[in-house]
Amino acid sequence: MTAEDSAFAVLGMLGDPVRRQLYRHVAAAPGEVGRDAAAEAVGISRSLAAFHLDKLVEAGLLTVSFRRLSGRSGPGAGRPAKVYGRAEGEHTASVPPRSYDAVSRLLAEVVENAGLDRELHAAAKAAGAAHPDAVAGDLVEVLRARGYQPFWDGETLRLNNCPFHALAEEFPALICGMNLALIEGLATYQWSPAMEPCPGGCCVALSKNKSH
Fold first, then answer.
1. Secondary structure of the chain: what % helix, strand, coil (to 5)?
2. What is the C-alpha to C-alpha distance for residues 148 and 141, in angstroms, rounded to an integer?
3. Which of 78, 102, 132, 160 has a 20 to 30 A CA-CA distance from 69?
4. What is the pLDDT of residues 22-40, one digit of tens each?
5. Which residues lie in coiled coils (predicted)?
6. Which residue(s) pair with 168 in the sheet?
7. Do the beta carbons of residue 69 and residue 32 sit within 8 Å?
8. 39 within 8 A of 46, measured Cβ to Cβ
9. Are 179 and 159 within 8 A, CB to CB?
10. Whether the model pTM is above 0.70
11. Domain count of the chain?
12. DSSP character for 56?
């Protein structure tokens, strides 16, 4: 099986609408999710949720581990439960095949070597500000639509996913700076974006300004 065939097989797992909902719920959660919580979120039985969750693990889309959900330990604490989290790998497929990732890496390398960080960040901020929903829309929904998977951590809005993960791994200063500038452009005066990495997620977190 070629890499392209494998990608299609993995993504085909998400053709089932229930399986797709389960994946979205687990992938967007800031921590691991148990079978009961996943079943309740999607509105299906625990046994059906377990079946689909394990299929997603087999496909490499989710990871599985075991822990006691009660928080207790020792005798009487019960057996550890299966919990699920988003897998680190990425899966893409296009028809016909494209190589946008190779071009992105090449462009990032050229920009970094040429010292054009400021120009890139300025362009990213302008692009964010030009988004049609940047001012009038709900920033949380704008970020969700862009794949950031936002969630509230107290009064801080954290981003559970980095849409530029692969590039950020290779060019952290360049891409994380671009990402911050982009979100600054998307955010209105009501928000204060800052570099505050979320474990396994995005390098930017946001807080609402006190007057709002």
1. 50, 15, 35
2. 10
3. 160
4. 999 999 898 899 999 999 9
5. none
6. none
7. no
8. yes
9. no
10. yes
11. 2
12. H
CATH code, domain carrying 66:
1.10.10.10
> How big is the chain, counted in residues?
212
**48-94 pLDDT, tens per residue?**
999 999 999 998 899 999 987 666 555 555 678 899 999 887 777 67
Contact of 125 with 181, CB cutoff 8 Å = yes
User: d(Cα 10, Cα 57) in Å, to the nearest integer?
Assistant: 11
Report cis status (omega within 30 of 0) of the bond before 96.
yes
Euclidean distance between CA atoms 164 and 167, whole angstroms:
6
Are 14 and 75 part of one and the same domain?
A: yes
- Map residue 191 onto helix, strand or coil: strand
pLDDT tens readout for residues 156-177: 999 999 999 999 999 999 999 9
Which amino acid makes up residue 210? K
Tokens at 25, concatenated: 């719920």
Reference 204, options 137, 143, 149, 159; nearest CA is 159
CA dihedral for 125, 126, 127, 133, sign (positive or negative):
positive
Q: Give the angle 152-89-55 at the CA atoms, nearest 5°.
A: 90
Identify residue 169 by its one-letter amino acid code: E
